[in-house]
Design a protein that fits this description.
alpha/beta, Spore Coat Polysaccharide Biosynthesis Protein SpsA, Chain A, 9 helices
């Protein structure tokens, strides 16, 4: 992916990729538009054309909101529409939000203040809480563990970053090649990008809950099994291009293989 062209200093671009979830999408968009930080543009990208989404976005645009709609040919994975939306962004910063997640109203303001005050840092995430389909807190609330330091090293050992909590400097996303546009990386393309960004500058995590991650009824066991295998895919691809110490690489692989063995032992 090419280098970002002109950036509007101080502007935060927000990307929301969607696929046939208009009701949730409306809530997500409203939580973004209700931010106390108002220098925001929103780019909604759908995986395949959706006339109802386009109509809703145009209605918001007509009453003065800085929001636009784009779409890609349906592909079944989010990397392609995310990257296409990136090409439409004008901001100095980029924030991501899934089409069913929500934000606290001061999320962007807190992240903007941190990144503006700390130029050595390129990415700022937040803690998150989980909600169900009715916006009620689920049994898993605030993340039980977040690193307090060594963020750039620990990301290789566990993906502690919630996608919808991330705000980063957009030029580094372009320099890293954006999201891996490959269906084999579906559901781990964000982690693949975090690993690449970790080589470009410092990470930080705001410990307060600013992001609400929506939990749907899914086959968790199947997801865990496939997820561990995809971690190996991510490492094999990323480590070939990154300057990572042999010790950190070994620890990363060891943790994944340990998870795979535990899954097989306890799920017979």
């Amino acid at each position: 992916m090419g280098t970002q062209r002109d950036e509007i200093k101080g502007l935060v671009s927000v990307i929301i990729v969607t696929y046939r979830r208009l009701n949730y999408l409306k809530e997500t968009i409203q939580s973004v538009l209700n931010q106390s930080f108002n220098n925001i543009e929103v780019v909604v990208a759908s995986d395949g054309y959706e006339s109802d989404v386009e109509q809703y976005v145009n209605e918001l645009k007509a009453i003065g909101y800085r929001i636009s709609y784009c779409f890609t040919e349906h592909c079944g994975y989010p990397a392609k529409p995310r990257n296409f939306a990136l090409s439409k962004c004008n901001g100095e910063y980029i924030a991501f939000c899934d089409d069913d997640d929500l934000w606290e109203k001061d999320k962007i303001a807190k992240q903007f203040q941190f990144l503006e005050s700390n130029p050595a840092y390129i990415l700022c995430a937040t803690n998150r809480s989980t909600i169900d389909s009715n916006n009620k807190p689920s049994s898993e609330r605030k993340l039980k563990w977040l690193p307090k330091r060594n963020f750039n090293q620990i990301i290789f050992l566990t993906n502690y970053i919630t996608y919808s909590s991330v705000m980063t400097r957009i030029k580094f996303v372009f320099q890293a090649g954006a999201f891996k546009d490959d269906p084999k990386f579906r559901a781990v393309e964000d982690y693949h990008l975090w690993l690449k960004l970790s080589q470009a500058g410092k990470f930080n995590v705001i410990d307060s809950v600013e992001t609400y991650y929506r939990v749907h009824a899914t086959n968790i066991s199947k997801s865990l099994s496939e997820g561990n295998k995809k971690l190996l895919l991510v490492f094999n691809d990323a480590f070939s291009a990154l300057d990572v110490s042999p010790l950190l690489k070994s620890m990363a692989y060891l943790i994944v293989y340990f998870k795979i063995i535990c899954y097989k032992v306890f799920n017979k």
